[in-house]
Amino acid sequence: MENEKSSSPSGNEWNKDLSRLLTVNTYISLINRQVNTYISINFSNSISPLSPPQESMFMLARILLLWFSIIFMYLNNTITLAEAKFISSQCEIAANDTRNSTYQRNVENTLSGLLNTNSGYGFFNFSVGQGNDRVYSIALCRGDVESDLCQSCLNDSIVQLRENCREYRYSKAAVIFYDICLLQYSNEYILGNPRTNKNPLFEWNILNATDQSRFNGSPGPLLKRLTADAAAGGPLLKFAAGNTSGPDFSTIYGLVQCTPYLSEAQCTACLDNSINTFAREYYTGSSTGRGLLPTCNFRYETYKFFNMSTLVIPSPSLGSPSFQPPPGNIYMYSYHR
């Protein structure tokens, strides 16, 4: 039996980032109109050209407005990218009471030590204990997330997991998803074990659903190309993001990622199965969508939600980069073995 908690069953959370950006743009436009109105009121009745002091004031007002707009948009974008939003958690109830047991102590020791095992590219893998009391754990941060934000997200996920699974705290296994990270522990070996890979968690925006057939014409091909690029990555990073042209002159942005221990075939299969299931059973024309598994995930939006400038690229000595020029832009920072 599992206990699952999700932050947004209605799908409304999907518009928050976009709404905030639109709010900023609206606010800046309003300020611009107010400044222009002020300038018009003060100078439209003047029968003579602007005097040098008035011209200086006019230019200063416009320059200050421009700088304020740039700074405000930068800060808002930084905040948006830096927010680690909780999405969902699943807690498996143990068949037997494990309170005060060796296994439970190993769970706590695993969660305490996991974050010290960073591969350098946002992947963590740690285990504690022997035999039936052994606890396995993994954690993964999104490929474009800086290390300090990754660490913060995983710290939050440990706290949130304990809170969400309070009544099931002594379970044998649990997984938690945030917008930019995930964490999982289990009494079974996790790496490459299909039994520890939960059913996909899908989210989409039901408010702007239009036409199911559009998937094959916009997000579908983009996610397929990104899947090939990410799957070709080496043992440190399997991640790709990019964009393509969408319907009605829109731009579709997509991102896919696999846990780096997967083989190319395993990563491809994980993403293909998840994306195909989403397209077949859940997609109704929504301009936003997401699929989450402990071993792979995908997401697409009509605005740029990733930050490629922060990505740490694996050393070229690990292999040669794989770039395939498709329509639109593919920001592919994964490497062949």
Q: Can you walk me through this structure?
A:
The protein has helices spanning 16-43, 52-82, 102-114, 147-164, 219-231, 264-281, and strands spanning 2-6, 86-92, 123-128, 135-141, 173-178, 181-186, 201-204, 238-245, 251-258, 289-292, 296-301, 329-332. The chain is of the alpha+beta class and 337 residues long. It folds into 3 domains: 12-42 and 49-82; 84-196, 2-Layer Sandwich (Killer Toxin P4, Chain A), CATH 3.30.430.20; 201-332, 2-Layer Sandwich (Killer Toxin P4, Chain A), CATH 3.30.430. The strands form 2 sheets. A 6-stranded antiparallel β-sheet has the order 1-2-5-6-4-3. The protein has a 6-stranded antiparallel β-sheet with strand order 7-10-11-9-8-12. Residues 8-28, 37-48, 72-81 and 315-337 have low confidence and may be disordered.
Index terms:
single chain, 337 residues, alpha+beta, Killer Toxin P4, Chain A, 3 domains, six-stranded antiparallel beta sheet, 6 helices, 12 strands, globular, signal, membrane, GNK2_sf
Strand and helix layout:
Elements: E1 2-6, H1 16-43, H2 52-82, E2 86-92, H3 102-114, E3 123-128, E4 135-141, H4 147-164, E5 173-178, E6 181-186, E7 201-204, H5 219-231, E8 238-245, E9 251-258, H6 264-281, E10 289-292, E11 296-301, E12 329-332
Antiparallel strand pairs: 1-2, 2-5, 3-4, 4-6, 5-6, 7-10, 8-9, 8-12, 9-11, 10-11
Keywords: Membrane, Repeat, Signal, Transmembrane, Transmembrane helix
Domain Gnk2-homologous: 85-190, 197-305
Protein name: Gnk2-homologous domain-containing protein
Largest sheet: 6 strands, antiparallel
Mean pLDDT figure: 74
Strand content: 15-25%
CATH topology of the largest domain: Killer Toxin P4, Chain A
Helix fraction, binned, reads 25-40%
As residue ranges, the low-confidence spans are 8-28, 37-48, 72-81, 315-337
Q: Label the overall shape.
A: globular
Broad structural category: alpha+beta
Computed Rg: 24 Å
The strand order across the widest sheet is 1-2-5-6-4-3
Instruction: Output the CATH class name of the largest domain.
Output: Alpha Beta
Q: What number of domains?
A: 3
Which homologous superfamily in CATH is the superfamily of the largest domain? Gnk2 domain, C-X8-C-X2-C motif
Count all strands and give the number.
12
